[in-house]
Amino acid sequence: MILQIYTIIHTLISLIAIFTGVVVLFGLLAGNRVDGWTKWFLITAVLTTVTGFFFPFHGFTPAIGLGIISLPFLALTIFARYRKNLAGGWRWIYIVGAVICLYFNLFVLVVQSFEKIPALHALAPTQTESPFKLTQLVVLTISALLCIVALIRFRPEPARVT
Questions:
Q1: Is 13 exposed, middle or buried (0-12, 13-18, 19+ CB in 10 A)?
Q2: For residue 161, what pLDDT band results from cuts at 50, 70 and 90?
Q3: Chain centroid offset of residue 8 CA
Q4: What backbone torsions phi and psi does residue 36 show, to the nearest 5 degrees?
Q5: Does pTM top 0.90 for this prediction?
Q6: In the predicted model, what is the mean pLDDT of residues 150-162?
Q7: 34-70 as b/e, with b when 16 or more CB fall inside 10 Å?
Q8: Using CA atoms, how far apart are residues 67 and 42, in angstroms rounded to an integer?
Q9: What's the rounded Cα separation, in Å, for the pair 3 and 97?
Q10: Is the sign of the CA dihedral 49, 51, 53, 58 positive or negative?
Q11: Spatial distance between the Cα atoms of 131 and 86, rounded to a whole number of angstroms
Q12: Domain extent listing, the chain
């Protein structure tokens, strides 16, 4: 019962991270800082990653590997945004990091969708089938293209220090 509640909480945090991440990405595409949304995206992305490590451990899994890979990207993204204030090259590090963090959450969303939604599971029961691979390729391609556009469009004004 506790594991079910924990799973629901983890899933809700993940969905909030995805939603706020999409808002942040569209803000970047529009050239806006969206400071409040960014804060919540990064908080929930960190919480999603951290809470993922507290599920029962039955050996190394791809989910654990992705969590380990996610942490440095999250740290670098947060550092670029809040310690370096997007100055100079830190702007593109932040953009690329934020998009990668969002992509990792979308990647897991696709995996979980193909595991849990019966119609998708029927299309790719082992997740080695073409529908799964094509879906992941589309998500990766769209993420990469939007990242490139964000790199071109997002030129924030320096943060005002008071």
A1: buried
A2: low
A3: 18
A4: -65, -45
A5: yes
A6: 77
A7: beebbebbbebbbbbbebbeeeeeeeeeeeeebbeeb
A8: 14
A9: 31
A10: negative
A11: 38
A12: 2-54+62-153
DSSP string, 106-151: HHHHHHHHHHH-HHHHHH-TTS-SHHHHHHHHHHHHHHHHHHHHHH
Name residues whose C-beta falls within 8 Å of residue 46's C-beta, 6 or more positions apart in sequence: 74, 78
| Residue in the structure block whose two tokens are 């320096």 | 158
Distance CA 68, CA 18 (A): 19
Q: How far is CA 135 from CA 113, 147, 160, in A?
A: 11, 18, 42
CA 54 to chain centre: 19
Please tell me the predicted confidence (pLDDT) of residue 114.
96
Helices (H), the chain: 2-29, 35-52, 62-78, 90-116, 118-123, 130-153
> Looking at this protein, which amino acid is placed at residue 1?
M
pLDDT tens string 114-131: 999 999 999 999 999 999
